[in-house]
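Students often ask why inverse folding is considered easier than folding. One informal answer: many sequences map to the same fold, so there is more than one right answer. In these notes we will look at a single instance of the problem. The structure comes first.
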């Protein structure tokens, strides 16, 4: 849990466009590899929104439940739950374990710590912009030396 009284800071670090976030999700059952691969590529949710590709890794499987680590580069409301619902599997537990470079440290209930200066600076760095494809270039066929 991250506590702050700075609203601008909160908005900046929680905006998915600024950094990726990683989650651990406990899923009821064991989704087949083909269904997980579908989520990795991105899916269209029930409301018509398309999710970006996600990094998904199986952490552990007990037969009745599976634990996955999911890294999102975008964040839609309830996205992970909605993604797994789409392939017919429920999320039983979900927790964010990373925001950008800030990794959750296992702390006991009631413990707290201050972020160090480097952690704050890293959180305030904006993610590099994604390259947008440029306009299509047209090429002319060249026959011979190209001289006229």
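Output (designed amino acids):
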């Amino acid at each position: 849990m991250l506590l702050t009284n700075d609203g601008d800071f909160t908005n900046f670090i929680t905006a998915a466009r600024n950094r990726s976030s990683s989650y651990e999700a406990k899923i009821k059952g064991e989704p087949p590899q083909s269904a997980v691969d579908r989520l990795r590529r991105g899916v269209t949710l029930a409301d018509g929104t398309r999710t970006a590709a996600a990094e998904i890794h199986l952490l552990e499987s007990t037969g009745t439940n599976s634990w996955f680590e999911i890294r999102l580069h975008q964040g839609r409301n309830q996205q992970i739950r909605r993604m797994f619902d789409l392939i017919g599997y429920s999320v039983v537990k979900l927790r964010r374990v990373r925001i950008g470079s800030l990794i959750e440290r296992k702390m006991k209930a009631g413990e707290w710590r201050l972020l160090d200066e480097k952690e704050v600076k890293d959180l305030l760095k904006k993610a590099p912009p994604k390259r947008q494809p440029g306009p299509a270039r047209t090429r002319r066929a060249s026959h011979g030396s190209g001289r006229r």
